[in-house]
Amino acid sequence: MSVADIVQTMQSKFNASAAAGLDLVFQFNIEDGENYALIVKDGTCNVQQGDNPNANVTLIMDSATLKGIATGETDGMQAFMGGKLRAEGDMMLAMKLAELFPV
């Protein structure tokens, strides 16, 4: 499963009601793959390949960690505590991902 496939899977699970009134950019920097940004705005979610300079939070991990979190096999908090996931920017927004993209 490529990083693009994982991001598309996340987008398909997007919970629009949880995103009402939000205007956020989640940047995913994948150490062994492509970078993507998820732009959440007023109940919509758009995917952008590459880097977004307006990211509110940047999550740095490898593709295996991203896949595990996206499929529910890996707990995001455990990945963070174990050093497999790093966050830069507003770390509290990273907690919103589980609400916005339920597994």
Share of residues in helices: 25-40%
According to CATH, the homologous superfamily is SCP2 sterol-binding domain
Structural class: alpha+beta
Secondary structure tally, helices: 4
What radius of gyration results from the CA coordinates?
12 Å
Note the overall shape: globular
Run of helices and strands: HEEEEHHEH
Cα(first) to Cα(last) distance is 17 Å
Summary tags:
103 residues; 5-stranded mixed sheet; Nonspecific Lipid-transfer Protein, Chain A; 4 helices; alpha+beta; 5 strands; globular
Detailed description of the structure:
The chain is α+β, with helices and mostly antiparallel strands. 34% of the residues lie in helices and 28% in strands. It contains four helices and five strands, in the order αββββααβα. The longest helix has 10 residues, at 3-12. The radius of gyration is 12 Å and the shape is globular. The relative contact order is 0.22.
A few lines on this structure:
Helix content is 34%, strand content 28%. The chain has 103 residues and is α+β, with helices and mostly antiparallel strands. The longest helix has 10 residues, at 3-12.
Secondary structure layout plus pairing:
Elements: H1 3-12, E1 23-30, E2 36-41, E3 44-49, E4 57-61, H2 63-71, H3 76-81, E5 86-89, H4 91-100
Parallel strand pairs: 1-4
Antiparallel strand pairs: 1-2, 2-3, 4-5
